[in-house]
Amino acid sequence: MFPMKQPLSVDGSLKLLVYIAAILMLLPLPVMQFVGEEGLMAIKSYEMFVRGDWLHPSILGGVWPHSPLWHWPVIVISQVIGWEHVDVAMRLVSVMASWLCALAVGLSARWLFGEKYPHAGWLAALVYLSMGEVSFWYGWLGYVDATFGMFIFAAIAALWRAIADKHIGYFLFSLVLISLAFMTKNITAYALYGMAGLVLIWRLHRWHLLKSPLFLTSGIAALAVPYLWQHWVILSGENTAATTLADAWRNFSGYSFFDYLRHWISYPAIFIFRALPISLFILWLWFRRRHHFVFDKTLTTIACILFVCFLPFWISAGGSPRYLVPLYGLVALLLTGLLLQLSLERLRQGVMLVALLIVLKIPYSLLALPYIKDWRPERDVKQVAREIMQLTKDAPLMTENDVSTGLAIAAYIDVWRQDRPPIRWNNRKVQAYVLAEVKTPGLGRLVKSWRLRGDHVYLYLQHGD
User: Fold this and answer.
1) CB atoms within 10 A of CB 289
2) Sign of the dihedral defined by the CA atoms of residues 379, 383, 387, 392, in that order
3) Which of 18, 39, 313, 328 could form a disulfide with 407 if both were Cys (CB 3.0 to 4.6 A apart)?
């Protein structure tokens, strides 16, 4: 398929690097305090467990129309290792999702490239696990993105096989996977899946499958999942689709032309940079060494899928890079296909670059991350949570703080004192201590305040109505 100066020869070192990269993803799990929205995710999981409700996540006592699937393994693992380690449980779910996605990438590469290159699967898995976005951040962070991305990529990969081979079994499997993606986060999973499917049908000339009763009825049945979920599970008055569309609209509204222009320029660069080191290695070979890469039918198809899935987030002004996590499996396949065109010497350079990045993961995880996030006193969320528990003792504690620091404090206190109900949003009716985000003299007497991670945290003693 690709011209090479000599046959690809890979020994056990490639497999060893894959295993090392996978294991090192566990490093940040026990050493980091809650990061960003992790406190929110911990609260949702713990409240689901306390209420015994596995279908309706809640935040500070209020039920939200969010998908629950990601919280199920978090609850199970927390029950095994203890809820005081819920941070580890959440991150472990993300790591396992990254491992599964690497497996799906490897199997896909073996199917696409393996006939000529037997070790393409291992190379693709290594490329995926070494990516900056996966290895250094969202691949282990206790967010839903790694799991959401894994289901979406696996669904698209199975769909590709289904369309190429006209195989109903793979199609049904892909529909199950994309439904699980929806139950993990939201309906954008179907949009990415649908756009990828149209590209695959176009590229593989399989338009007749749209007329196949078996394929058509199966697809319609899968699309009924969000409708059934909305009407049978989501509480009356709530709407998951409306919530997602409102979130999407916020990425377009209220921005100036220069905001759009800045986003249009920076977003592709961020996307490529976060796929380092191989993405930058390929760019270096292309621009500096004038290496000529060939985009055959397979690589062109991958590039087309990436473009149409990337486009909706690109044309907005506020699309977060985290929205692109589901696309990195496809990026890994594309980069693998380009690596396979290199001479053995160049390929070894690329693998050595990956090995260097894997080694850097050790000081990054054990030293750099904790210093940046935790070790400076003004960032120690756990210490503030302990102080609040000492100040409030057995008195009721409520909150009006829903930024990341306030949610992290509430999450720690919840799992540290499991004999008491979880912290709830303040109703201003009872005497209680209240965590506030801003100065609110009307709450009562200010007990203490903290400057924490760039935010202020205030503890008031409220007398109640």
Assistant:
1) 9
2) positive
3) 39
Pair (146, 249) in one structural domain: yes
Count CB atoms within 10 A of the CB of residue 360: 15
- Compute the average pLDDT of residues 216-237: 81
Measured CA to CA, the distance from residue 189 to residue 187 in angstroms comes to 5
**423 is in which domain, residue-wise?**
379-462
Are 384 and 287 found together in one domain? no
For residue 284, give the H/E element and its range: helix 278-287
pLDDT (tens digit per residue) in 439-454: 998 899 999 999 988 8
> Are residues 261 and 394 part of one domain?
no
Q: Is residue 41 part of a domain?
A: no
Q: Are residues 299 and 258 in the same domain?
A: yes
Is 274 a member of any domain? yes
- Residues 366-386 as b/e (b if ≥16 CB within 10 A, e otherwise) read eeebbeebbeeeebbbeebbe
Rounded-to-integer distance, Cα 454 and Cα 17, Å: 39
Contact at 8 Å (CB) between 306 and 331?
A: yes
pLDDT in tens, 299-316: 999 999 999 999 999 998
Q: CA–CA separation, 164 vs 454, rounded Å?
A: 52
How would residue 285 be classed by pLDDT, with cut points 50, 70 and 90? very high
Is residue 44 assigned to a domain? no
Q: Considering the entire predicted model, what is its pTM? A: 0.92
Q: Is the pLDDT of residue 252 over 90?
A: no
What is the distance between the alpha carbons of residues 442 and 449, in angstroms, rounded to a whole number?
16
What is the distance between the alpha carbons of residues 401 and 453, in angstroms, rounded to a whole number? 14
